[in-house]
Amino acid sequence: MKRMVCLMLALVLAMSLAACGSSAKAPKTGVEDGVLTIAMECAYAPYNWTQNDDSNGAVPISNVPGSYANGYDVMIGKKIAEANGWKLEVIQSDWDSLVPGVQTGTFDAVIAGQSMTAERSEQVDFAGPYFYATIVCVAKKDGPFAGAKSISDLSGGKCTAQLATIWYDQCLPQIEGAQVLPASETAPAMLMALETGSVDFICTDMPTAQGAVAAYPDMTILDFSGTDGDFQFTEEVRAENVNIGVSVQKGNTELKNKIDSVLSTMTVDDMNALMQQAIAVQPLSE
Questions:
Q1: H/E run at residue 49
Q2: Which ranges of 25-106 would DSSP assign to H, the alpha helix?
Q3: The domain over range 135-224 is classified in CATH as 3.40.190.10
Q4: Which DSSP string corresponds to 173-216?
Q5: CB 131 within 8 Å of CB 275
Q6: How would you write the pLDDT of the chain (286 residues) with one tens digit per residue?
Q7: Cα–chain center distance at 139
Q8: In sequence order, what are the beta bridge partners of 63?
Q9: Could you tell me the pTM of the whole model?
Q10: The CATH number, out of the four listed (3.40.50.1000, 3.40.190.10, 3.20.20.140, 3.40.630.10), of the domain defined by the range 35-132+244-281
Q11: Do domains 35-132+244-281 and 135-224 have the same CATH topology?
Q12: Are residues 178 and 159 in contact, defined by beta-carbon separation less than 8 angstroms?
C-alpha cells in the first residue's frame, strides 16, 4: 500500500513538472485575448489625432465613444495587429500617463511618437525604431526668425516646446538669449502658441513640423541638421532622441519580438512614405 501511495505521488509530481515546463515554453504577451491594446494622446498630428468618423482608416477610440483615432501611429498599430492576427484597440491617454499605463499593464503597448531615450528605457522596453525623426524649429514665415540659419540666430526670441520632451528640456536651453516660456502641455497647444504670436518659434521633431506647415501654411521649418549651428548632443543622446519606438512592459520580450518582427520589414523609405500618407490626411491639411 505504501508503495502504491509513493508511486501515485511520484506520478502527480511528474505531471506537475511537465505542466510547469509546458507553460515556460509559452511566455505571455498580454495579447492572449487576441486584442492588441495600444495607447496614444490622439492629439499629436501627424503621429496621432482624433476625428469624428472612420474615414481614411481611422479606428474607434475605446474610451472616448463616438471618436476615432488616426495618424502614423494608428497605421503602424494596424500593421502590427494584422501581421499577428490581432484586433486593434486604441485608448486615449495623456502624455504623462503613457509610461505608467504600460508599466501597470493598463495597455499592451504605447505607440505615440515616443523617443527611445535611456531614461524611458529604464522604465519600459522598446521595440523598433518605427520612425527616425530629426529635431527642428518652426517659425512664422513673416516673422523675424524665418531666415534663421543656426540656433544662434534665434537669440532673443520667445519660444516653447511640448512638456516633458527633449525639445523643451535639452534643446531650447542651448539657444543663448532665448526667452523660454512655460512648456505646452500638448503639441496642438504648442502650435497654437506660435500661430497666435505668443512665441516666435517652437522646437519639435520633423514629422510634427511637417504636419504643422500642412495645417498652418503661414509657418516654415527651420532645419539646422548637419550644420555647425544645429543643437549639440553626444551621438548616443542624438540617436536615442531621433529613434521613435513602441514601448511595452519591462520584460515582455515575447510581445517586443512580435512587434519587432513586423517593424524590421520596413525600410526608412517605407516609414517616410507612410508618414507622408498620414500628413496628407491629417485634419486641416486639405
A1: strand 49-51
A2: 72-84, 98-103
A3: yes
A4: GGSTT-EEPPPBSSHHHHHHHHHTTS-SEEEEEHHHHHHHHHH-
A5: yes
A6: 444 434 444 444 444 444 444 343 446 788 999 999 999 999 999 999 999 999 999 999 999 999 999 999 999 999 999 999 999 999 999 999 999 999 999 999 999 999 898 889 999 999 999 999 889 999 999 999 999 999 999 999 999 999 988 899 999 999 999 999 999 999 999 999 999 999 999 999 999 999 999 999 999 999 999 899 999 987 777 666 689 999 999 999 999 999 999 999 999 999 999 999 999 999 864 4
A7: 24
A8: none
A9: 0.80
A10: 3.40.190.10
A11: yes
A12: yes
Cell digits of residue 222: 527651420
Question: What are the extents of the domains in the chain?
Answer: 35-132+244-281, 135-224
3-state SS string over 86-121?
CEEEEEECCHHHHHHHHHCCCCCEEEEEEECCHHHH
